[in-house]
Each structure stands twice: as structure tokens, then as C-alpha cells.
Write a structure and sequence with these properties.
Number of strands: 8
Structural class: alpha+beta
Largest sheet: 6 strands, mixed
Distance between the termini: 32 Å
Number of helices: 6
Strand content: 15-25%
Shape: elongated
Helix content: 25-40%
Bound molecules: adenosine-5'-diphosphate
Strand order of the largest sheet: 1-7-8-6-5-3
Radius of gyration: 20 Å
Length: about 260
């Protein structure tokens, strides 16, 4: 077993939007403007060989800026959850193509989907964005490439053993495992804090895991991270099983189809 096991911890809820975020955003815009400027000049002087590269750079910065604003919006809004009966395997399969493209050639991507997986009670949109976030984190931890496994499983918490804050009950577990850098103990302590990031300015917002944590808390789930420096990381997202009745916290009953339970 990995020693550096760290459970999610209680966090004081919402972090304030700080000047740091505006600063990050500004850096992204500066990157876009700089690239556009270079494109303009290169075109003006007929040097087309580097234009592709600058367009790529502008695109990357713009995508980061867009991702940042949508995360900030979601974070600020603290979207109300829409818990419905969800087939997590189907959700993973639906994202597979996008994930493969996002991860690129360097990352070997594998899914291990449990054939008898329970129906989950969760917010499909939030779960998708959590999965994407986890896979992007995994990719970022494997700059040299590596292996990423997305796995689903049933988990029954019915014994008296300590599962680090996981309430008794049935869960669907969605886990993302990478063979990347892993995290130091001091990083592990802070990963769920809003705005904590070890990534270069403009690349990390530090909101991914804190939002996933918030989502898990709100939906009666749980996040568990198992990471070892130099070996890799597994993030497990525990989602409540759907029991064929009104899911916990749901305020939109009508959208809940009958689950296989
Ligand atoms: P961001 O990805 O924007 O930095 P997150 O909240 O998603 O924000 O992650 C916070 C930090 O946790 C990252 O900057 C990184 O140091 C660490 N981290 C998250 N996922 C992984 C992973 N799979 N492997 C190694 N480190 C990770």
C-alpha cells in the first residue's frame, strides 16, 4: 500500500476571487496578444514558416482563458446539483474520444469498466467535468508520456473499518490512475484548497480538485487520493449508488428515470 495516502479534509468553503486569478487571466491574454502580434508581423514580412506555431500558441492560451472563466463561473455560482440516475460506464464511454484526443499520442489510455456496475445518483455534467479535469491533471503529471487508466467499480462500505470519512453505503467508484510524477506529502496536504497549484502561471488555476471536492461533498460522495512521488497517482471519486427512489439532495424529481438499481 502507498504510504502517502491522504484523505480529503474539511475545507472552509468558498475562497474569494483574488488578484491572483485576474493576474493569471491577464497573462493568458498577454500570451494571445503576443502571438497575434507575431502572426501579424510574420505575415507582413512574408515569413510563413512560424505562423502555425504562433497560431497554436494563441489557441492554447485562449483555451486556457476560456477554461478558467468557466471554472470561475461555476465556482462562483456553486451550481445547484441535478442528481439523476446515471450510468457511469456510458458516461466514460461518451467521453472516451475526447479524452484520447486531449491526452495525445504520448499517453496510453485504457478503460476498465465494471460489467455489473450499479447505477449512480449524480450530476452527469459535473461528473463529466470532474473526469476531464482528472485526466488533464494526469496528463500534466506525465509530460514524458505514460499510462492513464480510467476505471469503474462498485464499492460497498458496510463494515466498521475506517475509510477516512466515507459514510456507510453503496458507491460507484470512478478512478483515474496515472503513472506520472506523483505528489509530495506537502502537495497532497493542499490539493483540495481552492487556488492551490504547482503549475506555471497561466497553466494551473488550482480550482480543479477543489471543485471536485465540493461536488463530492454536495452530492454525498467522497474523493480519495493515493499518490506516491515518482510513481503516480490514483484519484478515486465515490459517487452514491442510485436506489430507485429520490436521490439525496435532488430537487428535480421528474428527471429521475427508473434506475436498474
Ligand atoms: P491545477 O490542475 O489547476 O493546478 P488542481 O486543483 O486540479 O489545479 O490541482 C492542484 C495541484 O495538485 C496541481 O497543481 C498538482 O500539483 C497536483 N496534482 C493534481 N493532480 C495530480 C496528478 N494526477 N499527479 C500529480 N500531481 C497532481
Amino acid at each position: 500500500a502507498h504510504e502517502a495516502l491522504r484523505q480529503s479534509q474539511k475545507m472552509d468553503a468558498v475562497g474569494q476571487l483574488t488578484g491572483g486569478i485576474a493576474h493569471d487571466f491577464n497573462n493568458m491574454l498577454t500570451g494571445i496578444i503576443g502571438s497575434l502580434d507575431l502572426i501579424q508581423r510574420n505575415i507582413a514580412t512574408g515569413r510563413m514558416d512560424r505562423v502555425d506555431r504562433y497560431i497554436e500558441a494563441a489557441m492554447t492560451s485562449a483555451q486556457r482563458a476560456a477554461a478558467l472563466t468557466s471554472r470561475l463561473l461555476a465556482f462562483g455560482r456553486r451550481q445547484s446539483l441535478d442528481l439523476t440516475a446515471i450510468d457511469v460506464n456510458a458516461l466514460v464511454e461518451g467521453l472516451e474520444e475526447l479524452l484520447r484526443r486531449t491526452l495525445g499520442e504520448q499517453v496510453e489510455f485504457e478503460t476498465r469498466l465494471a460489467s455489473d456496475l450499479w447505477t449512480a445518483s449524480t450530476d452527469a455534467h459535473q461528473l463529466e467535468s470532474a473526469l476531464l479535469n482528472l485526466c488533464i491533471n494526469a496528463r500534466d503529471a506525465m509530460p514524458q508520456g505514460g499510462k492513464l487508466i480510467v476505471e469503474t467499480a462498485n464499492f460497498e462500505r458496510d463494515d466498521g473499518r475506517d475509510h477516512g470519512g466515507l459514510d456507510a453505503g453503496d458507491y460507484v467508484v470512478l478512478s483515474v490512475t496515472d503513472s506520472g510524477s506523483g505528489m509530495s506529502p506537502s502537495t497532497l496536504e493542499k490539493v483540495f484548497e481552492p487556488f492551490f497549484t504547482t503549475k506555471p502561471v497561466g497553466q494551473g488555476t488550482g480550482l480543479g480538485l477543489s471543485m471536485i471536492y465540493g461536488f463530492a461533498q454536495q452530492s454525498g460522495g467522497h474523493v480519495q487520493i493515493d499518490s506516491e512521488l515518482g510513481r503516480g497517482t490514483t484519484v478515486k471519486l465515490f459517487v452514491q449508488r442510485f436506489h430507485g427512489e429520490r436521490p439525496v439532495g435532488s430537487d428535480r424529481l421528474s428527471q429521475t428515470p427508473l434506475g436498474a438499481g
